[in-house]
Amino acid sequence: MEWVRRCAIGVAFGMFVRRLTATAKHAKQSVPERIRRVESVLRQRTSRVLLVLEASIDEHNQQAVVRTAEAFGVQHVWILRASEKEMKKREMENARRVSKAAAKWVSVRMFTSLDVLIRELKADNRAIWAADVSPDAVPLTLNAPLQVPERLAIVIGRECDGVSPKMLSACCQKVYVPMHGFAESFNLGVASGLVLQRLFDLCPQARGDMAAEERNQLRREWMDEMCAPAEVVECCAQNDFQTLSDMRRQEKAVRVPSNFKH
Predict the structure, then answer these.
(1) pLDDT digits (tens, 9 = 90+) for 12-69
(2) 31, 99, 19, 110: which is closest to 65 by C-alpha?
(3) Following DSSP, what letter does each residue of the chain receive, concatenated?
(4) Dist. CA 195–CA 190, nearest whole Å
């Protein structure tokens, strides 16, 4: 009778393994596109490059910069708030709403003190670069004599006068995007996009450069936001399915405001 009992246990265990395998296979095959998109974005996220926005006085520019950083896969954006005198109360409230909305996919950290911001950058072991058009700045071109640090903070200054003297004194490198017209500066959002693109051109390996622990934490937060089943999250964590190679949608999503008229 002992051998019968052992056979029964073996059969039961085999059925359990097959059921478990089938469940995992089903989860792998049934990962919806929205989850594939989230995981695809996550695997391209970088914490090697941190974007700093210093004392912008226009909340629309803040929104554009945060959105631009997200589009380039930059996970961390630190913002030094302008003073109450420089920014209207309504704009300050809007800026808070902007940062709150952006924090869904980007880690936005707000500061009210430049000294604290600089101290925290150094504590995070960041090499600080500034986007600046001074004569000693180095052009951000493919043949520039620059090496993107392992942990970089790139600072974009405010609309009227750029990066502050105190922040410049904390920087180890000044860079700029060459211009060939009469205009002497770019819009804040445009400047951020150009600088980030040039940085990733100089250092393609920075894309997706993130510690596994941080990526796993983001995965848990994002998948919880998407209400993803536990077995699907496990497939994502084990890289057990094919992510999207092209983030463009097959059908263009057109969002027209209700008050828009042709």
Answers:
(1) 444 444 444 444 444 445 678 888 889 999 999 999 999 999 999 888 899 999 999 9
(2) 99
(3) -HHHHHHHHHHHHHHHHHHHHHHHHHHHHT--HHHHHHHHHHHH-EEEEEEEEE--S-HHHHHHHHHHHHHTTEEEEEEEPPPTTTS-HHHHHHHHHHHHHHTTTSEEEEES-HHHHHHHHHHTTPEEEEE--STTPEE--TTSS----SSEEEEE-BTTTBS-HHHHHH-SEEEE----SS-----HHHHHHHHHHHHHHH-GGGTT---HHHHHHHHHHHHHHTT--HHHHHHHHTT-S---S--S-SS------TT---
(4) 9
